[in-house]
Amino acid sequence: MAHGSASVTRLLLCAPFGALAFSAATTANAASPTYYDNSATFLGDLSTTVTDDYSDGGYGFIQNNATMSNVLGETDYESTGLDNQNTVFNSGGDFRYCSGCTGSFRLSFQTTSVGTGSGVIGAGFFVESHDLSSPYVAFVTFADGTTENVALPAGGNFWGVTAAERIESIHIGLPGGVATTSGNFAIDDLVVGDGVVPDSDCCSDSPMNLPGCLDLTCEASVCAALPFCCDTEWDNLCAFQAEALCPAVCNSCGNGVVADGEECDDGGESATCNADCTFAECGDLQINASAGEDCDEGGIESATCDANCTAVACGDGDLNLTVGEICDGGGETVDCDTDCTPAECGDLTVNNTAGETCDDGARSAGCNADCTTASCGDGVLNATAGEICDAGGESAECDVDCTVAECGDAVVNATAGEACDTGAESVECNDDCTVAACGDGILNTAAGENCDDGGETATCDIDCTVANCGDGVVNTTAGEECDDSGESAECDDNCTVAECGDGVINVSAGEECEDTNTEDGDGCSSQCTIERDSGSSSGGGSTGDSGNAEGDTTAAGGDTTGDDANDETATPGSTSTTGSTGATGSGDTADAAEPAGGCNCSTSDEGQTPGVVWSLLALFGFGAARRRRRRAA
Fold it and tell me: What is the pLDDT of residues 502-513, one digit of tens each?
């Protein structure tokens, strides 16, 4: 449709006065936009533009956001009141756009061909319908992050905006970009563009050599005197003129020359001079980044600003009690944790500088009560970790595994004097934890010991077996001279050295008799062999009958069978003679004096061998004595 033109001065809101007041009351911005209600003026301030009159055949009556945005690809559409309801309709041959015509929508300009990723310099459209009983506003988002709510005119009017900061998006709906589905709003001839927008603040020349300046009142005053300032370029002459004509706009602070009322002027902020030409000082309420200030709240500590005008941060070395710091050593110190609380073992904060390797708030299986890592042998008793003792290593009272030192605990503790510890008596170890050895004075049955008196004793052999004659072990303490495990040629069976005349018949040594002497002629020779007569009688009885060799003989009216003096044993080759029945002759050997030693060893020319009889009697007697000694042993 054809739209009429109406002149407007830039920066004046193209809306009724009441709408202008609403916009000013809700502005929270730092950008410097210019608003238009005249399309010609708007287009004149842009060098490159794209206009969408919505007549492209790619549009349907209703389409989703993606389809709507892709038809021309210059503006991204988003219906925010009604989901994906983008409507293009024909009104008397004139195509228009709305979001269901009762819903809010957003126009974004970061993908257009006439701008940058930050947006466009200008955007505008004709308002075709607008129900002012439910008024819509333009919520403009600038590329510098600032926003502004701007009232929109009634239907039949143009509305546009330009900004050197660039425009990212415009939401058509309720203030603050809030969506709505009430009222009615439709647009036509959407224009987005880039190009000429004054970049001078009027008081300095244009960085891009562009004409005009941002303050329209000052611009008009200067251009009335110097027209080229608005037609060609805003140079230093224009800026000088603005300082003279626009004192409220052009403060001389920042020109590098200290003027009246200025404390300093370094041509801008410096480490010693604020941007308002006052001396830089923490506490002056002027944030001076060049002076290292992050904030300035009058030199008073706050939750966000330290007293030295730096941002609050635990670990910055500046104590700030307002945020709860108790200390701040600029990081972890011996006295201060990294969370700005005093370093203390048990505070659940590990402080390596203070010597802590752990901090579980109390003793735990992994951490000692002194905040060192729990380890058996560290010298710190930790019952939670299962330690019963901890002497920092093996001690007389504590094993290396932190259990109480005790013989029989299966842990060798050399400091406690243990040479071994197998948990009980074993082949290698005594039950007092000394190495098992026969002769150590400790009975170890597991090692096969029957006794252990610390050496040979009368009851214990040197090999720790019970002392016993015949056990094959010579035990001199028990009186043994030898021990060949029984009779041998060198040793009697009573463990004395075998010797003829020792009173012990030793058959292995060749002894036949033993009369405790080594004299010949007594029936037992000096070699302990039985002595025999060299001859014997072959006939009658002896005139000196010494008894009967066979049978019973009655002498002097009595039985002599059990008489030791008259019993004799016939030997091979002897002749048995029957003597008189009672009387003994004058030569009767029974009445002869016995030889020394009590053994009748006399020789006889007769066939009887009285010496043999006595030798046999002696042999039987000594044998009985030996048996008695064996039983006694």
Answer: 999 999 999 999
